[in-house]
Design brief:
This protein has 294 residues and is of the alpha/beta class. The chain is 40% helix and 16% strand. It has a six-stranded parallel beta sheet. The longest helix is centred in the first third of the chain and has 21 residues.
Length: 294
């Protein structure tokens, strides 16, 4: 049995097509969605991520505002900049690129963002609305994983979903999304982690297995159920002398050993990765639409 590949590029293009239509409607009403990305310092990886977001905004017709601040910026100065963006009507969404320099309290900064502009969905207000099933904005990577399954026609309702990893970025919010009372959710969700007893036994029960632990090729064929759906969120760089730069990107799942046993799987790279920026753009458009309704 050859597994179907769930490709983030294919799924994201469907969502981008819908976003272009919604952006056109907003522009007909005199509203242009705008995303402000705040970067503190000159971390190379963060600069790359900011550049990718800026490029996608321009492709979609979303205004992009880059606020580049020196690494010496104080917490008070950063919060003052966020408050300025909160009150700027041209800005629909605000994203503070993490990680921040050590002298800045990330939690305090996140809480300073207007929840209606919190397109990363890290603010406690938005997380609370997600838990009770009333969210307008959802965390980008978990929402992207959910949409990959929905858009690929994978039945979630009634299935046993096992999530490996309990991070605040993926595991916890994704569990909440998938257990909601909704035709595209209604799953029975088990979250396993490093302290879970009978760890492997629970993984073997998964109809849908989602892995986000940052351990290269950790999940092998003997750990998964025949015909399961596998969503691999891992992005690990390992040594590979055959690669041009001596490194290779692999997931948390041993793709080669698993692909002939499961019904569908996300590759790494090319799987979940493209969905994070896609759902960030979606949140920016939702935030702009919310302001129309005010």
């Amino acid at each position: 049995m050859a597994a179907d590949l769930i490709l983030g590029k294919d799924v994201s293009e469907k969502i981008y097509a819908n976003l272009r239509e919604r952006i056109s409607v907003l522009k007909s009403k005199g509203i242009i969605p705008g995303l402000a990305v705040v970067l503190v310092g000159d971390d190379p990886a963060s600069q790359i991520y900011v550049g990718m977001k800026d490029k996608k905004c321009k492709e979609l017709g979303i205004n992009s505002y880059q606020c580049i601040l020196p690494a010496t910026t104080t917490q008070d100065e950063l919060i003052a900049k966020i408050r300025e963006l909160n009150s700027d009507d041209k800005v629909s969404g605000i994203l503070v690129q993490l990680p921040l320099p050590r002298h800045i309290d990330e939690s305090a900064v996140i809480k300073a963002i207007d929840p209606s502009k919190d397109v990363d969905c890290f603010h406690p207000f938005n997380l609370g609305k997600m838990v009770i099933g009333e969210a307008e904005l959802l965390p980008a990577t978990p929402a992207g994983i959910h949409q990959m399954m929905v858009q690929s026609g994978i039945k979630i309702a009634g299935k046993h979903v096992v999530i490996v990893g309990r991070s605040n970025i993926v595991g916890k919010p994704l569990a909440n999304i998938l257990m909601q009372k909704d035709e595209n959710a209604d799953a029975t969700v088990t979250v396993v982690h490093s302290r879970t007893a009978n760890f492997t036994d629970l993984i073997k029960q998964a109809d849908i297995l989602i892995v986000a632990i940052g351990r290269p090729r950790f999940i092998t064929a003997d750990m998964v159920k025949e015909g399961a759906v596998i969503i691999d969120v891992g992005t690990n760089r390992i040594d590979d002398p055959s690669a041009k730069n001596g490194k290779r990107l692999v997931g948390d799942v041993d793709f080669d050993s698993v692909k002939d046993k499961v019904s569908a799987i996300t590759p790494v790279p090319g799987g979940v990765g493209p969905m994070t920026i896609c759902m960030l753009m979606n949140n920016t458009v939702i935030a702009a639409e919310m302001r129309v309704k005010e």
